[in-house]
Design brief:
The structure holds two protein chains of two kinds. Chain A is α+β, with helices and mostly antiparallel strands. Helices cover 38% and strands 23% of the residues of chain A. In chain A, α1 runs antiparallel to α2. A four-stranded antiparallel β-sheet of chain B has the order 1-2-4-3, covered by helices on one side. In chain B, β1 and β2 form a beta hairpin. Chain B is elongated. The chains are: A alpha+beta, B alpha+beta. Chains A and B meet through β1 and α2 of A and α1, β3 and β4 of B.
């Protein structure tokens, strides 16, 4: 995330719960296209583009990552209570 | 906690997992997603990198980063106090519900004897009898 907005980002599974990914993607559908490029036991690599296929808008990507983080935290709290 | 300030309006905090739990980090992030953009990545086996980026028309990032560090410390402390006092809290809840017969196994002692002096007295009497 340091050199402007990257089109590809690696999400560590320890922090980002991939179960929350579909909901975050659905919420940002109007502003962002998100596709899973690669998955491993430790990480999920996602690729971003704008709905027309061009470069994604910087703050849409950042907003998406914030939303995914929020959903992941809520999921972790819920899981710890059950 | 090491803080790296980048030129493009981004602050990176290196969080040592030996000091701060992942749970404390997650909860802290949750409290700050309304004030700045956050992205967390792992940089090595011991450290998470927390990238903080200012939101448009948001607060100064330096101030947010400082508050983030304090909040992380708060959450970690709460976690540790919670762990240390878990047994005590369970005992208090058990005592509180004992009168309503809501528990399968009633807790030891009586409500009028919260420190269980009677029990320790009877234990010492039994010990005394045994010694005879």
């Amino acid at each position: 995330m340091s050199e402007g907005v990257q089109k590809k980002i690696s999400l560590v599974r320890e922090i980002y719960d991939t179960k929350c990914l579909p909901r975050a993607v659905a919420e940002y559908r109007a502003a962002l296209l998100v596709s899973v490029e690669r998955e491993s036991t430790n990480e999920v690599v996602v690729r971003f583009s704008d709905p027309s296929g061009g470069d994604p808008i910087e703050n849409s990507v950042r907003g998406f990552l914030n939303r995914l983080l929020d959903l992941s935290v809520l999921e972790a709290i819920q899981a710890s209570r059950t | 906690m090491e803080q790296i300030v980048r030129n493009d309006g981004e602050i990176v905090l290196l969080v040592d997992e030996a000091i701060y739990t992942r749970s404390a980090l997650l909860k802290t992030c949750y409290w700050f997603t309304d004030r700045c953009y956050i992205f967390v990545s792992r940089i090595d086996e011991r450290h998470f990198a927390v990238n903080l980026t200012a939101k448009p028309d948001g607060q100064a990032l330096e101030a947010i980063a400082g508050e983030f560090e304090n909040a992380l410390l708060d959450h970690q402390l709460r976690f540790e106090i919670g762990r240390e006092t878990a047994v005590l809290r369970e005992l208090i809840v058990a005592k509180a519900f004992a009168d309503g017969d809501l528990l399968d196994d009633p807790p030891v002692g009586t409500d009028s004897d919260p420190v269980e002096m009677e029990m320790s007295r009877s234990d010492s009497t039994a010990d005394h009898e045994r010694d005879k």
